[in-house]
Specification:
about 475 residues; alpha+beta
C-alpha cells in the first residue's frame, strides 16, 4: 500500500464476499502530470474485458462480473462468485491512464513507446538490446522519493559474466547465483559487498510430463524422486545455500502453513535407489539388454531440459541424471537458451525439465498451479503454469473450499489437506527451495534489506510482487 496508489488506503468485502471495494489515494498524478483517479482503475479492467488478449490472467472469464468507479476515489469490483483469493490476483494488475489508452484504436498492438505510469521510475532514458535505463518519475506521489535518480539494467549472457560484473563493481544490486559467494564476492571488497539469501523464493522442481508414459504413473514419479540424492544436489548445485525439499514442497515463506503430518511422510523424498528400482519394476519397467529399464515399447531415453548458462540448474540436472542412471533410467541433460527452453516447457514438449514454481501470499496459488485441473492446457498450447499437465480431483475439491473460506482455522485445515494430496499423488518432484538471491554493494547506496532490517524481500527479482519497488524507494545514495 505504500507504493501502489490504487490500493493505498483500504479495501472492504461486502455482499457476502462478492463485492470488493477499494478506496484509492487522492492527489496522485501520472508521470505526465495528469491526475490519477479510481476511474483509471475501472477503465483498465474494462479494457481487459473489451480486449481479451490483454487479459493475461483471464480475470474476466474466471472472476469478474463488473468493475465500476462511482467517484474519483472508489473502485468497486463485483465477482461472479465468492472467490476470496481473487484479491491477490487483481491487485497485481498494472493500471493504465485512461486519457491515453482510450484514444488507442488497437490496444493489443499498441507498442507504448512512451509509457506513462504512477511508479517511482517511469522515464525511458535508454532502451537498447544490451541495456536499458529508467529515470525517476518527476511526479511521483511520495514526496522526496525515490532518491535514486535512475536504474540501469545491463544484460549478460550467463551467470558467470554477470557475477564478474558484480564482483568488479559494475553492478550495485543483483539477484545472481554466485558459487562461494564469501570468497568470490564479499572478500573482494568486504567493507561494501553484502548478500542475503533467505529461503523464501519458489520451490525448484523436476517436472515430469504426465501426458507421456511412463510419467503418467505416480509410482514412476515417486521413483524418480527417490533416485535423487538431494543432499548431494544441494552441495553441488546450490553450494549449501538451500536445503533439500521436504515432502510438502513449500518454501520457508510458507512455514506457517506447513502440515506436520505431511512433512513426516518422507517415503518419497529421502534418497533410496533400491526402493526407486522396486517402484519402477511395479510400474512395468524391467531391465533391458543395455542394463537400462525398458517398458512395453522397448528401451527409452529421456532428456532433462535446463537453461544453458544457469550454472546452478545445469549442475542440478547433472546430479539428477546420474542418480536416474544408477536407478536404471537412461537420462541425459539437454541445455537450451532461455527462449527455447521456456517455449518447450510451456507447450509441454519435454520428458523431464527443471523449472520454478508459482507463489503468492499463501500456498493457494502454489498448489493450484501444480494440481488444479482447470490449469491443465492441451499439449502444444502455451501454459502459464502446470507445465507437467497434472490435474487432481481431490485437489480441486480442497481448492474450491479454500476459495470461499474466511475462517483462519478452517483455511489452515484445507491447506493441510492440499499438502497431503500433494504427498500422496506426487504431481511434480520438489528439489530444494530457491533462495531469494540478493547481492548488493553499499559503496554507492545504502539501506538495503538485511536480516537485521528485513523490511522487504532483498532480491531485485521481485518486480512482479512490488517488493523491489519498496526497496528502490527506500535506498539512499551515499
Amino acid at each position: 500500500s505504500e507504493f501502489v496508489p490504487w490500493l493505498a488506503l483500504r479495501h472492504t468485502w461486502s455482499e457476502g464476499n462478492r463485492l470488493l471495494t477499494f478506496t484509492t489515494r487522492s492527489g496522485v498524478s501520472w508521470s505526465d502530470g495528469r491526475p490519477f483517479s479510481a476511474r483509471d482503475v475501472a477503465f483498465t479492467f474494462n479494457l481487459l474485458a473489451k480486449f481479451p488478449a490483454l487479459d493475461r490472467g483471464n480475470v474476466w472469464d474466471r472472476l469478474l462480473e463488473s468493475v465500476e468507479a462511482p467517484d474519483d476515489t472508489t473502485v468497486e469490483l463485483r465477482f461472479k462468485r465468492v472467490f476470496v483469493p481473487g484479491m491477490e490476483e487483481l491487485v497485481a494488475q498494472q493500471i493504465v491512464p485512461e486519457h491515453i489508452w482510450s484514444t488507442i484504436e488497437d490496444p493489443v498492438a499498441f507498442p507504448n513507446e512512451n509509457p506513462v505510469g504512477t511508479g517511482p521510475f517511469t522515464e525511458v532514458n535508454v532502451f537498447r538490446n544490451q541495456i536499458y535505463e529508467l529515470g525517476r518519475n518527476p511526479h511521483y506521489w511520495q514526496p522526496g522519493k525515490p532518491q535514486v535518480k535512475a536504474l540501469r539494467f545491463p544484460a549478460f549472457p550467463s551467470n558467470d559474466r554477470a557475477n564478474l560484473a558484480l564482483a568488479f563493481g559494475e553492478v550495485d544490486w543483483a539477484g545472481n547465483f554466485i558459487p562461494a559467494v564469501d570468497r568470490v564476492y564479499v572478500a573482494r571488497r568486504p567493507e561494501a559487498h553484502r548478500y542475503w539469501f533467505p529461503l523464501t523464493e519458489s520451490m525448484v522442481f523436476l517436472y515430469a510430463n504426465t501426458t507421456r508414459a511412463p510419467f503418467d504413473d505416480s509410482r514412476v514419479r515417486r521413483a524418480l524422486s527417490l533416485a535423487i540424492d538431494r543432499d548431494l544436489l544441494v552441495d553441488v548445485a546450490a553450494y549449501r545455500y538451500s536445503r533439500p525439499s521436504d515432502p510438502t514442497a513449500v518454501s520457508d515463506a510458507y512455514a506457517y502453513w506447513r502440515d506436520p503430518e505431511a512433512v513426516a511422510n518422507r517415503d518419497w523424498v529421502d534418497y533410496n535407489p533400491d526402493r526407486a528400482r522396486e517402484l519402477l519394476g511395479q510400474a512395468g519397467l524391467t531391465p533391458g539388454a543395455d542394463g537400462y529399464l525398458a517398458g512395453p515399447n522397448g528401451p527409452a531415453t529421456y532428456q532433462i531440459l535446463v537453461v544453458s548458462g544457469w550454472s546452478d540448474w545445469v549442475r542440478a540436472a547433472q546430479v539428477i541424471a546420474r542418480g536416474l542412471q544408477e536407478a536404471g533410467i537412461n537420462a541425459s541433460v539437454r541445455t537450451y537458451d532461455f527462449g527455447a527452453w521456456f517455449q518447450r516447457l510451456q507447450e509441454g514438449d519435454f520428458d523431464l525439465a527443471i523449472g520454478w514454481s508459482f507463489d503468492g501470499p499463501t500456498p493457494y496459488s502454489f498448489y493450484r498451479w501444480l494440481m488444479a485441473t482447470d490449469t491443465v492446457e492441451p499439449i502444444g498450447t502455451p501454459a502459464i503454469g502446470n507445465w507437467h499437465r497434472f490435474g487432481s480431483a481431490r485437489a480441486d475439491s480442497l481448492l474450491a473450499a479454500y476459495e470461499v473460506e474466511t475462517d483462519p482455522e478452517r483455511l489452515h485445515e484445507l491447506m493441510a489437506g492440499l499438502q497431503r494430496v500433494f504427498v500422496a499423488e506426487a504431481p511434480a518432484i520438489p528439489l530444494y527451495p530457491n533462495p531469494s538471491w540478493a547481492e548488493y554493494s553499499t559503496a554507492r547506496f545504502e539501506n538495503f534489506p538485511t536480516p537485521e532490517n528485513p523490511y522487504a524481500d532483498p532480491s531485485p527479482n521481485k518486480f512482479g510482487r512490488g517488493e523491489t519497488l519498496l526497496v528502490l524507494t527506500n535506498l539512499i545514495p551515499r
